[in-house]
Amino acid sequence: MVQKTTEHEKVPTESEVETANHFFKKGFNFYQEKKYAEAVTCYDKVIKLVPTHHSAWFNKANGLAQLCKYEEALTCYNVAIKLYPSNGSFWNNKGIVHILQKKYSEADVCFEESIRLDPSDEIAQKYKTLLGKKQWVEEFV
Question: The dihedral of CA 116, 72, 65, 57: what is its sign?
Fold first, then answer.
């Protein structure tokens, strides 16, 4: 019996990895230039070649968040978290998007998870503390 390989299980060729690395760097440069749509396009190419590239999913989410495409960003953060669940940055950025959507309890859950993963995570602690201050939240959004 032949077992089917899912897209996430496919092992990329050396050529695909090289091409993915090229587009990842290009996407990073576009993001630094605040060309978020172009960055997202590059990260899509990386993901097509290497679907398990958690940093590409994370960076794509960041680009989408900059474009105010919050639901799409959250979807990408969720994939990045599934691929690398112990990365607190993924949880923190997801929490920030929830704040931007005024979903404060969801944001709090994200910061709690980041703190659970790393109790010394100063970013998560800062946002969790600030989230409790209603005035700050209203100014943030």
Answer: positive
